[in-house]
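seq:
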Amino acid sequence: MKDVNCSYCGNEEALAAFGVFACELEYSNLYVFKEQSHLGRVIVAYKDHVDDFTDLNEEERNGFFRDINNVSTCLKKLYNPTKVNYGMYNDKGHHLHCHLVPKYENDPFEFGTTFEMNPKRKFATEEELAKLVEELVNGLK
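struct:
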């Protein structure tokens, strides 16, 4: 099931406002967040338009969290963050997704606190986004 207004269901204009598609995972899709104050910030969104992980059966739910785990493992290998924060907020956008936000101790901005949704500190260029996508896709192989 898809929602034509949803950025994760193929609404390219809505997606372009904050991110770019990186690749398809087993149960999800991976998107790179354009705002890269935290190098490697991504979103893992479930392939179908569901509101909550409790809407999934056990296999689907385990697959979704396995995708999140695989992406997190990749982020840790590629960018060596001190910690990865995970955020699942569905009160506005009703499509199951998880923000993965690498946090770096040498960055005084937000370390030790919850990440800001859009801090507007550093927007990646198209070239930087393409490089991030390439690194993630290769790192997930």
